[in-house]
Amino acid sequence: xxxxxxxxxxxxxxxxxxxxxxxxxxxxxxxxxxxxxxxxxxxxxxxxxxxxxxxxxxxxxxxxxxxxxxxxxxxxxxxxxxxxxxxxxxxxxxxxxxxxxxxxxxxxxxxxxxxxxxxxxxxxxxxxxxxxxxxxxxxxxxxxxxxxxxxxxxxxxxxxxxxxxxxxxxxxxxxxxxxxxxxxxxxxxxxxxxxxxxxxxxxxxxxxxxxxxxxxxxxxxxxxxxxxxxxxxxxxxxxxxxxxxxxxxxxxxxxxxxxxxxxxxxxxxxxxxxxxxxxxxxxxxxxxxxxxxxxxxxxxxxxxxxxxxxxxxxxxxxxxxxxxxxxxxxxxxxxxxxxxxxxxxxxxxxxxxxxxxxxxxxxxxxxxxxxxxxxxxxxxxxxxxxxxxxxxxxxxxx
Length: 398
What we know:
The protein has 398 residues and is an all-alpha fold.
């Protein structure tokens, strides 16, 4: 039987340790204990959260612009100092050495500011949302703080989860490397394309003056986009633990499951993990909540989505409905309905001989992201035996 162990036994990254210590100190020792509002947010709290997000986005854009301007000015000053574009080897060495030093310093200061601003803004976000780690047990508090710290520093999620769920079980390693490479090249590639367009359209004289400044708006826009993602993701992760328990309460209230039904419930969450190749902390929280609620220790691996679909078709109707509701909860609790999640939902519905109300699933996801309460029957309402209207089917798996 697979042993249940902590999600990740490897040493924590330095940045994660720093972020964890900072958030723990500020969220555990605040004398003004907030009301335990869970993931349900009031209109005034939502407005305050949006104000925090707008501030972070604006500051990130300004930081990117300043860093870009510093490098652009360094390039222009070196051209003026050398009396023109560097030609000889010694001139090019001097030019690029100075530009690299200025770029390294400005980028280092930019990244340090962005990390610091993200971390303190996430702390403010958690306080506004009424998140108090004293409402969680030690394991839950640690998981939440680590998730928020990873968000602030844009660190990846763990690849090994609760009950030995392997995130990359069904993922091509080549796809992972390609995605990483594209992410690293995004700013440089965008700047290169813009420079090429301007050179073709405006001529070399204009390019000589303005080309160094091309990276300024590019960096500002990327910084703004990343900052928006970080704060949105932090808000979603902060709501995760309470949402996981709310979903579990809605699903497992009066239900009595066989061992096969309990295994299917665990496999439903794990299937979302391996299909998306991402152990989102909210999905991990849901897996822990489901595991604690059904008190079942599986003898077999749970991270095979094909096995989940095969066994799902053999369950009686009530247990199929329970597993489908767990699957829907796992698909929406990370705040996005990805293509692979939709495909998995379509396959699971077909295995059970039912239909999924696409609009209801999307609405449930939107309600969660907005921090609004959902009705206990919202999950059950996503499943129907009535035919879906034309054009409303979920995406087919590929």
